């Protein structure tokens, strides 16, 4: 199925390539600017009908040109409009200069803007293409607008937010709404950009789909279009082993809860059979709480090898509440020819020598899924974690290639990346998933998808989306235990 244009995500660099291709094809670039600016004006009138004044803050580039067009359209509609410019009129070029020429009112320096009661700010200063810290005079205006709690409608993306990474470049507007054109940018989905952009409207200004689709996208938004074709349908011949056998490793006697939640989540996510592999000290504690999940006594590497003699068992989850880092390292290496979801303590076990893990899974198809949060990511990939020049997508992709693994880089803006260069941002998740045990549930869900035959990238992406859907269904008071009860079937294409 073809991804709808509204679901595409293009970086500022890719969007610039689209603009160039549109101009080279004969499309009037100023006509595109007019449609963009008029869409901004329409949104301002629709969402702020009671505004006493629209303060249009324009920048020195095409984003500012959109602002001048919006100012003209608002004035024609009878609104009170004041325009403020960062820079000098004579420095404007191309379409931005044409748009400025169309505004017959006064243009004042940006520093002259003082928020008033009843104002709505149209932020048309920089948009998504900014790559440097905002000037101090703009930062001062941003601070004044924030203190005055004046609503902000941003053109493309709040000025001060990097459209590629979502990072704040010194200071940024906090918009109630952003109007972007043709596609969203990564900064609309990556934090903190997502929290600053407000409601995002994608407006079609007339660039043909063929031009948009000709430019490679670095990332997509996670959703059923990414993995829905891989969702498994049961047939009359299905049995529990055909639906997949997953093994989850338990920690010691006082550390059994995390693994049980992973195992229960896997069972609720469709695995045909789930076993909990536990040391002797943890068998009784686990047996008290489990019914449909089988218990296997695995004390050491030798007993693990006995378990691996059963060729039907191909998928494992290791790490939640495991505790013993030395044993976790040994177990993970023993599983290098199987599918493995490595989480929590399983990741930390390789902090001293990540290449030991990466080399073990380097050959063949991708069968390792890593699920680090920010701290765990830094343990395996310290150089990537410290590189402020990389976006979260860049970091996840570099990590996936290095580890020959699917990397699910957790957070409010979870990124899932594959060694082959595919990456998605998962925005389908409520903030109340930030609770103890939520990650253990996610690990079990990924394991269930792998056990059922989904490829590693699709298994992880589908689990992240499904995990978010369960969070929405469970509501603000969810716990990891109640989250499991709200796991719904995967949608299929």
Question: What do these coordinates show?
Answer:
By secondary structure, this protein is an alpha/beta fold. It has 2 domains: 5-217, YjeF N-terminal domain (Rossmann fold), CATH 3.40.50.10260; 224-232 and 239-484, 3-Layer(aba) Sandwich (UDP-N-acetylmuramoyl-L-alanine:D-glutamate ligase), CATH 3.40.1190. Helices cover 40% and strands 15% of the residues. It contains 20 helices and 17 strands. It has helices at 12-24, 29-47, 62-76, 94-102, 136-148, 193-197, 209-214, 224-227, 257-268, 280-289, 301-308, 325-334, 345-348, 354-360, 374-380, 382-385, 392-403, 438-451, 456-474, 480-484; strands spanning 53-58, 81-85, 107-109, 119-124, 152-155, 177-181, 199-203, 220-221, 245-249, 273-278, 294-297, 315-318, 339-342, 368-370, 406-409, 415-417, 423-425. A 10-stranded mixed beta sheet has the order 8-17-16-15-14-13-12-9-10-11, sandwiched between helices. A 7-stranded parallel beta sheet has the order 3-2-1-4-5-6-7, covered by helices on one side. Helix 9 (257-268) packs across helix 18 and helix 18 (438-451) packs across helix 19 (456-474). It is elongated, with a radius of gyration of 26 Å. Its EC number is 4.2.1.136, 5.1.99.6. AMP binds at residues 410-414, 439. K(+) binds at residues 63, 123, 159.
